[in-house]
Design brief:
Largest sheet: 6 strands, mixed
Strand order of the largest sheet: 5-6-7-3-8-9
CATH architecture of one domain: 3-Layer(aba) Sandwich
Helix content: 40-55%
Strand content: 15-25%
Structural class: alpha/beta
Distance between the termini: 56 Å
Radius of gyration: 30 Å
Length: 623
């Protein structure tokens, strides 16, 4: 396992702000590494420096230039005026250029260019790569390749940039918040894709399930130091807790010793000072350890919600459509005190539309809404708000209120409240333009909570918020004395908070599921398994049953065969489905068409034979 990336002693400042200094770590070939840190410490800047999009003030970076590298930025840089097609297939990779030429000829429909492109595809054996490209585009729901970049939403741009990165099949992937703007289905696909990929991975993400299932090493940036943990996110949590406990024990021990050494320093005669020089130096080193310089910079959310009356919010038969397509139809629900509801569904299914309807930002085509007199909405929108970059942090907060009432009834001034939100006095007089994306998101959340809402509506609240702050936000929402309605692709976040889920199933159908996201996924998987088993039984040809007085009991070997047949039939069905996709693609040569058609015929015979045998054994099992 060779060294692919070596970061050696790099430092970076922006103006007077020191982001990090003397950062050193190594990424070996094949490793999947994540960087975790609080917002504002320079994670994105560090990724930019590693990818060559920024430069460090000092230090060196070695990156094996023989390795094909791709970088997904947190905010993609795509070219206005270009189409999705041009951006997705923007590559100097020879194989991608061949596929791009073929796709272009396919769309044009011109015979000669298409024949030339097919010949090139055959020559480069690019058909498997073309299938992979199509799979990536389909999974990321990129269908209209003629759209111009400038008309895309932020989420669409992120998906185009991700497709561009994956299509090139890099050996080293650098990903900055890859799950932002992806729906849950896309995230789960991306997880599987990266797990199966042999590429080396370095990423920043706040998605804890994503971290847990992919990473084999986590690097934590904390108080200008790096801590490296082998293992996934679960291992990181355990080892981090052990590290902090050890550090606290060291500080406690140093403080006990410091008391004795302080007494010695006071009693030490001046004339013997030169003889005790080494002990004096050790005293000051001990004083540094005992001071426990590690600052507590965790966010605190402790704010009183407005009192809520008995009547909260009632929706009666809400319907809404865009361009003759219904996104919400006949939706009715009576919201109860202290309930916490998650909303899931594919992008474009109408999740955000429902939130806008409930808050009155959109008017329903049909139906009515009844709001309780005491309801105060706090709506954290996905896009956030556009701050005046020339404003200072404290001025933004003061424009809402000079004081804030906390959950315990105490009243604090706005500066103290900002400090609880990890905006210390040294940052409060900074201009908004100096804040990171995560800090702006945190300030936006603060401006919502300062209004003391009792009905929180959160549309993708976890975007750009660091893991430490997310854990604190989760704790606040779990104990929030009011209603919470959440749209989020962060599965861990949803599991921690919600009691039940509104599932957008498509075609304006909204189902209420009792349980959190993991409960729902388990329910869906069980349902799919049952449906597949039912389809196999129904598809199997009827077989005459011999008349027997007594059904014989299955032998041990037959029981083993029964289990083996289920797996074999699933594998054969999967191969058959893949062949059917290839045959309907229109991209196969005459010889390939003949070969794959023959194979499908053989597969069908084999599936039928094994299914008949499975049914025969199943009858024995039942007997």
């Amino acid at each position: 396992m060779g060294v692919l990336l070596q970061v050696d002693g790099i430092s970076k400042s922006i103006g007077d702000l020191q982001l990090f200094s003397d950062i050193t770590f190594v990424v070996n070939t094949g490793e999947k590494v994540a960087i975790i840190a609080k917002n504002g410490v320079g994670k994105t800047t560090l990724m930019n420096i590693i990818a060559g999009a920024d430069s460090a003030d000092s230090g060196t970076i070695f990156l094996d230039r023989q390795v094909k590298t791709a970088y997904l930025r947190q905010e993609p840089l795509l070219t206005a005026g270009k189409t999705v097609f041009e951006e997705v297939f923007h590559s100097s990779d020879e194989m991608i250029m061949v596929i791009r030429e073929y796709e272009k000829a396919l769309v044009s429909g011109e015979q000669k260019p298409l024949e030339a492109a097919i010949a090139k595809m055959d020559h480069y054996k690019a058909w498997d790569h073309e299938v992979r490209v199509k799979q990536i585009l389909t999974r990321l729901k990129i269908s209209d390749l003629d759209q111009k970049i400038e008309i895309l939403s932020g989420g669409q741009k992120k998906r185009v940039a991700l497709a561009q990165v994956l299509i090139n099949k890099p050996e080293f992937l650098i990903l900055d918040e890859p799950t932002n703007h992806l729906d849950v289905e896309m995230i789960e696909w991306l997880e599987e894709y990266l797990k199966k990929s042999g590429c080396t991975l370095l990423m920043v993400t706040h998605d804890r399930y994503f971290l847990d299932r992919i990473c084999d090493e986590i690097i934590e940036m904390d108080n200008n130091r790096l801590y490296v943990y082998s293992g996934n996110y679960s291992d990181f949590l355990r080892k981090r807790e052990e590290r902090i406990a050890n550090e606290q024990a060291v500080v406690s021990k140093a403080r006990n010793l410091l008391r004795k050494e302080t007494e010695w320093m006071r009693r030490m005669p001046q004339a013997r000072a030169t003889k005790a020089k080494s002990r004096i130096e050790a005293f000051y080193e001990l004083k540094e350890v005992a001071s426990g310089k590690k600052e507590a910079k965790n966010m605190k959310i402790n704010i009183a919600a407005t009192r809520m009356g008995k009547k909260i919010l009632e929706a009666h038969g809400l319907s809404f459509k865009w361009d003759n397509t219904y996104y919400i139809k006949d939706f009715s629900y009576n919201f109860a005190r202290n309930e916490k509801i998650g909303i899931i569904g594919k992008n474009g299914a109408g999740k955000s539309t429902l939130l806008e309807l409930l808050t009155g930002a959109l008017k329903p085509e049909k139906g009515t809404l009844e709001h309780g007199e005491t309801v105060v909405f706090g709506f954290v929108r996905q896009e956030g708000i556009s701050f005046d970059e020339s404003q200072k942090v404290i001025d933004v907060a003061r424009s809402i209120a000079e004081t804030v009432t906390l959950g315990n009834g105490n009243v604090v001034d706005v500066s103290q409240f900002l400090t609880q939100f990890m905006f210390p006095p040294s940052v409060q007089h900074n201009y908004i333009s100096k804040l990171s994306g995560g800090e702006k998101r945190r300030l936006y959340l603060l401006t919502i909570l300062m209004r003391r809402p009792n009905f929180l509506i959160l549309d993708e609240p976890t975007n750009d918020i660091d893991i430490m702050s997310l854990a604190i936000l989760e704790d606040y929402l779990q104990n929030f004395n009011g209603c919470v309605l959440i749209v989020s692709h962060d599965r861990f976040f949803m599991d921690q908070i919600v009691d039940h889920i509104f599932v957008f199933e498509g075609d304006a159908v909204i189902k209420d599921f009792p349980g959190n996201y993991s409960d729902y996924r388990e329910y869906v998987e069980q349902k799919i398994k049952k449906e597949k088993a039912s389809e196999k039984i129904q598809a199997a040809p009827e077989k005459a049953k011999p008349e027997r007085a007594v059904k014989p009991k299955p032998t041990y070997k037959e029981k083993q065969e029964h289990e083996r047949l289920i797996k074999e039939i699933e594998q054969l069905e999967s191969e058959k489905k893949e062949l059917e996709i290839q045959l309907s693609s229109g991209n196969l040569s005459h010889g390939e068409l003949s070969e794959k058609s023959t194979r499908i015929g053989a597969l069908i015979e084999e599936i039928n034979a094994k299914t008949n045998r499975w049914i025969e054994l199943e009858e024995k099992m039942e007997g």
